[in-house]
Known about the structure:
alpha+beta, three-stranded antiparallel sheet, 5 helices, 3 strands, 11% strand
Amino acid sequence: xxxxxxTNAPRWHDLAPGVRVQLRPLTTALMVATRSDPAVEAVPDxxxxxxxxxxxxxxLARRAVLAWEGIGDADGKPIDPSPDxxxxxxxxxxxxxxxxxxxxxxxxxxxxEKNASALSPNGPSAGASATAKPACKPAxxxxxx
Length: 145
């Protein structure tokens, strides 16, 4: 069952021990805006999937991050989110992975669900009913000479 969160309120997401970000809900408007982001559109056609994913994640995060905790500058002083700081945050591999898993992939689960197929009424799937009668005795095998 699809449950709708009608409050559409920002949520906190833990990305690493002591690091969390407050993010806007992942809405259609946010995804559409990110797809047409100049940084995403500037990715060359020959770019790898990984390069595309990073450009998209950074563009999405720049739109979605409202606040954060546990992030500071080189001297350890807390800093506020900014486009450059958000990009630098996502350059940290474990943070990028956590962002993808806790935020982006949950939003994309619905996309995958609508591509799922129902069980087939006949055929090899788990929902199929048997169409052949069980064998009465074992089949004979060819004899080896």
